[in-house]
Amino acid sequence: MIVLESQRRRGLIGRLETGKDVLESMRDLCVREKVETATFTGFGYIRNPTIQIFRPEHRRYVKAPETHEGDYLATSINGSVSFHQDARELNVSIAATSVKDGSVIAGELMSGEVISFEFSIQSFDVVRLFRDVDPNTGLRQWVMME
Question: pLDDT tens digits, residue range 68-106?
């Protein structure tokens, strides 16, 4: 278990640029604002989201990431920011509804083009968390704090 109580936090709130990738934009923002460990949430409209789903019983992803063509209302995008080796890594989940037919998708978000996306970030500036593959689950989890 990794637990830390932090009294020192920063909050950021904003909107991503239309046409940019959600994850690349959030990662770039975190680098620019020196956000090293954080949680974030957001919502809005995205185009052509690519997701993947992990199967815990098999300790691997169900299949290759799948791109869902079209526009989606992302009712919930949640994630965390940490490090894998020396690079910032985002772990992001999504629940979204197709604006065309109302079908719902959910999984780990790999990419998606911003149509309109608003977010808030809660940064924990007193710690840097590192993510690596957990041999028990096969998932990349927080394994060390600095």
Answer: 999 999 999 999 999 988 889 999 999 999 999 999 999
Mean residue pLDDT across the chain: 92
- 83: Cβ–Cβ under 8 A, 6 or more apart, which residues? 36, 89, 128, 129, 130, 131
Which DSSP symbol is given to 29? H
User: Whole-angstrom Cα distance, residue 32 to residue 70?
Assistant: 30
d(CA 16, CA 32): 14
Indicate yes or no: pTM above 0.70. Answer: yes
Distance CA 49, CA 120 (A): 20
Exposed/middle/buried for 110, CB within 10 Å: 0-12, 13-18, 19+?
Answer: middle
Helices (H), the chain: 22-32
